[in-house]
TrEMBL record:
SMART domains on file: UDG, UreE_C
Highest taxon above the source species: Bacteria
Any single GO BP term: base-excision repair, AP site formation
Listed GO MF terms: pyrimidine-specific mismatch base pair DNA N-glycosylase activity; uracil DNA N-glycosylase activity
Native organism: Allocatelliglobosispora scoriae
Name this protein carries in UniProt: TDG/mug DNA glycosylase family protein
Domain Uracil-DNA glycosylase-like: 18-184
Amino acid sequence: MRRPSAADLAAAHGRSIPDLIADDLSVLFCGINPGLWSAATGHHFARPGNRFWPALHAGGFTPRLLRPAEQGELLAYGLGITNLAARGTARADELTAAELREGGALLAAKLAAHRPGWLAVLGVTAYRSAFGQRHAVMGRQPERIAGVPVWVLPNPSGLNAHYTAAALAAAFAELHTAVTQDHRNS
């Protein structure tokens, strides 16, 4: 994957990237919105320093560390990616509360249409805003969305200093354990 130039990044502002989604996935991961690197390259969680791909692997979801350009391989593992807001921004705080609520409604429709086993939202603040769950915490949520159980994970952005790489991997591993237990019990 070619490193985007400053001009590429500037041109990516407001650009969206397609969902990576299919019916009956084990987990649909939902980011907040594409960063400019992702919008410029067309690959989810593409910015160097984003810890999504390492956490996904360390948490047990993939047998090897995938690069953003290999995102299409996730479908074979029963995994997909979408975003609460479609437009690319330099920072998630550029999004409005209304955009996140609208994204939550669109996400609920996607869940109803595609029926994943789990929804994993990457960012508790975005989850709270999108779904009006002011007191939500990390981990499994008591509410379901469109009948789908919800798990909130930390935002994997390198800007999220609250979580080390090891803590992020452990959070992903907790979800992986829950998904695995659900498969055994079905």
